[in-house]
Design brief:
Layout: E1 10-11, E2 17-18, H1 25-33, E3 36-39, E4 52-55, H2 60-74, H3 85-88, H4 101-104, H5 109-115, E5 122-125, H6 132-142, E6 146-151, H7 157-174, E7 178-183, H8 190-194, H9 197-201, E8 206-211, H10 215-218, H11 221-224, E9 228-231, H12 237-249, E10 261-262, H13 264-273, H14 278-297, H15 305-308, E11 310-311, H16 313-320, H17 332-346, H18 350-363, H19 367-382, H20 388-403, H21 409-421, H22 427-442
Parallel strand pairs: 5-8, 5-9, 6-7, 7-8, 10-11
Antiparallel strand pairs: 1-2, 3-4
Length: 458
């Protein structure tokens, strides 16, 4: 532990953690920085939180900072694990909620419904980390409704029926309404979605579903007709920076007890790297904070504790290295982005086409899938206007297969730029589809006599 006074900790059964010391905290801090007085910490006794550290002469700020960082780095080894920062900082009220101004600004229908304590059944559609679950909880709290939560990944009709029974009992016994929140509701099949309908209609419960997929494609019309769909947007960078600042300042739920600070540039970089996701920005912040604390307590020079307790750009870059943009190869974002690439090529916009290629590669899309789509584009959109396009697309596919990533991706980029810049003709594509339609509509017509193979006079 780099000269720090802790020995291995040992957990006493059933209660607090105890930390035996090689020397008293007084003696250790005195040897490090001078004469210190520790209030509330006794060797081999349960460690209270927070611990007050006071200097008998000068340097109180540095002492408190160093010892606070030290404790918050090493106490997790002797304390029960806390929930992740993103869960601890989940907003508890509308005043704490960040973003979604188009839904929650004064006078907007959803804000009015919440203010009047008249919630209705609804679907929240938006990318991860935009507040779908949190908003459902806030609505339940404002309306004094009991909050029931199920995950479509882990639940079936049996769990739905149990939740409905509980909601009915609460209404009959306590006169209290219930909000049933279903996360990832698009993963329920038709029969599971239909199971909600009678209970939504008779007022047994208020239904709130959350989905990252387009409800028009993934949810039953019967369920959609009984709910209102609200679209949640990815958070702006300014909103995410506010989330970071609140987490660093919050002593009870956030990182405030660590006395950390963050550079303006580092905060902006965190927000940009989170890609509109509040959960992601808090996860990245927590990692950056842990690395910063570790560096501070491992330093032998306590005089620089304040500087060491600052999260800088270098630390943020460490935690975001390898972080991917939002991309779901099985979901709607995947099809949206490949569509954007195809339409950029078709529209002769090479810069846009390169951008969407980079987005897909950065997000983790299979380069060989993209290569196959480029071959399709070469035939469908360029065709005989520039027959070389097909050859170049095939060569790019072969280069990616032989070289792999990242080297082969340059060949894909070359092909994308060529296809976007080439002359366009979809004549072959249209003619082929017309021929197929003709064949399917006419049945098995005989080959005309003058076109048949006639090896004999018969």
């Amino acid at each position: 532990m780099g000269g720090l006074p802790f020995r291995e900790g040992e957990r006493k059964s059933g209660a607090s953690w105890y930390v035996p010391l090689r020397q008293s905290p007084d003696a250790w801090l005195r040897s490090q920085r001078g004469a210190w007085r520790i209030s509330g910490l006794v060797s081999s006794m349960p460690i209270p939180t927070p611990i007050a550290v006071a200097n008998e002469s000068a340097g109180d700020t540095q002492a408190n900072n160093l010892f606070s960082l030290f404790l918050h780095h090493h106490l997790p080894m002797f304390s029960p694990a806390l929930p992740p920062l993103a869960e601890r900082m989940r907003p508890q009220s509308l005043d704490e909620f960040v973003g979604q101004h188009h839904l929650l600004a004064e006078g907007r229908p959803l804000r009015s419904a919440i203010g009047k304590e008249q919630p209705h059944s609804m679907i929240f559609w938006g990318p991860p980390g935009t507040g779908k679950t949190t908003l459902a909880r806030v609505i339940a709290a404002h309306s004094s409704c009991h909050f029931l939560k199920l995950s479509a990944l882990l639940s079936g009709v049996k769990e739905i029926r149990a939740a409905v029974t509980q909601a009915r009992q609460l209404r009959e016994v306590q006169g209290k309404g219930s909000i049933l929140f279903i996360d990832e509701v698009h993963r329920f099949n038709k029969s599971q979605q239909d199971a909600f309908l009678p209970h939504v209609e008779d007022g047994t419960l208020i239904f709130i579903g959350a989905t990252t997929e387009n409800p028009s494609f993934e949810l039953n019309n019967a369920l959609l007709s009984r709910t209102r769909v609200y679209v949640l947007k990815a958070l702006e960078s300014a909103d995410l920076e506010l989330v970071v600042q609140r987490a660093l300042a919050d002593v009870e739920r956030g990182l405030g007890a660590r006395h950390l600070s963050i550079d303006d540039q580092a905060r902006r970089l965190l927000a940009e790297s989170a890609d509109g996701d509040a959960r992601r920005v808090l996860n990245l912040l927590e990692l950056a904070a842990d690395l910063t604390v570790e560096a501070a307590v491992d330093s032998a020079d306590g005089a620089h504790a304040i500087e060491l307790g600052r999260i800088d750009v270098t630390r943020v870059r460490q935690v975001i290295e390898g972080s991917l943009r939002r991309f779901d190869k099985a979901g709607e974002a995947f099809y949206d982005q490949i569509s954007a690439l195809h339409k950029s090529v078709r529209g002769s916009a090479p810069d846009a086409a390169l951008y969407w290629l980079a987005r897909m590669i950065d997000g983790g899309s299979d380069p060989l899938y993209i290569a196959r789509r480029l071959v399709r584009m070469a035939s469908e959109d360029i065709g005989n206007a520039d027959p070389r396009a097909l050859t170049l697309a095939l060569n790019a596919w072969d280069a990616q297969r032989r070289l792999g990533s990242p080297e082969g991706e340059l060949a894909l980029a070359q092909a994308v730029v060529y296809l976007a810049s080439a002359a366009k003709s979809n004549a072959v594509y249209k003619a082929w589809n017309a021929a197929l339609a003709e064949v399917r509509s006419q049945g098995s017509l005989q080959v005309p006599v003058h076109l048949r193979n006639a090896p004999t006079r018969l």
